Amino acid sequence: MLTWQRWTGNAIEWDALILRLEDFTVYQSHAWGEHRARFGWLPVRMVARRNSQVVAAAQILVRRYPLGVGVVWIPGGPLGDIQSWNKDFRQAIRKLSGLKFLYCRFNALGVRANGVDEMLDSNGWARSSQPLSSGMSLEYRPSLPEEERLQMCSGNWRHNLRRSFKRGLSTSVWANPDPVEMMRAYESMQELKGLAAQTSKDEIESLLSAFGKHCVIVRCDDEQGNLLALRGALAMGGKAWDMFAVANPAGRKVYASHSAFWFLMNQCAIMGVQWYDMSGADPVNNRGVYDFKKGSGATDFTQVGEWDFASPFFLRKPVSYLIGRRGRA
């Protein structure tokens, strides 16, 4: 018999539990929940047990509004046995969220296997009509020998990497990242590309505080010590997820992004990272970023992706539309 129930253990116990599930992600870690709590989300953790053994887990983030209305977001999850993401799971979400009227969406980042869509559909989930991501990503293997990884790069990417090595750049692990300096780099990139805000100083500070040594950031400087580019990741359990990536206009001219990425992958190899998630790919709407990631030798894969439900059910489409519209704003 399968039962879902609230998890009441501590941070160390929660992370140890999810690391035993093959599809664990950093977005289901205790630290990620505490990070998002600083921005108005309430983390609630639950597990599914079958014959006293944990077979699935989910850290849900709840945002409450007046009159018992709210939204539940499950980033990078649920985890574990997909068959357990059933009506009992949805009922547990309703109960543990404390909401009378709710919209719930998850974004599972594991590889979409044959039959997964049919299974989720039969369990009462619907694929989100207004997804916030493409449902694709790329995986990289930092643990492979460096020469082998170099040969996996496209010819143009490899050429640009070697160009960066000839520009007198200094690349290193940023031991004490400065959120203000990081934000200046992001603002410079946003102005150059005409992008909406990619992050904020508060979000950067929160991530650095929540993850500590599990957040590794590489900076690439010019000969005068001025920041040209940075690349950062969150790592846990032999996996890592791309989190920070930016180059200012001067850095773009000397291929500093290539140097920063390559140095970060070498650091990940030293840390024992076997699998690196490039954190999304959109070859249609963001071709330049996709080409950079693909050119590095990373491999495409399709994720389980975004699925939702609402209670009552008629809230699903209008709320999904509003979330999608806000996400594109």
Automatic annotation (TrEMBL):
InterPro entries: Acyl_CoA_acyltransferase, FEMABX, PG_Glycine_Bridge_Synth
Superkingdom of source: Bacteria
Keywords: Acyltransferase, Cell shape, Cell wall biogenesis/degradation, Peptidoglycan synthesis, Transferase
Keyword Coiled coil: no
One GO process term, biological-process aspect: regulation of cell shape
GO molecular function list: aminoacyltransferase activity
Similarity comment text for this entry: Belongs to the FemABX family.
Name of protein: BioF2-like acetyltransferase domain-containing protein
Native source species: Rhodoferax saidenbachensis
Taxonomic path: Bacteria, Pseudomonadati, Pseudomonadota, Betaproteobacteria, Burkholderiales
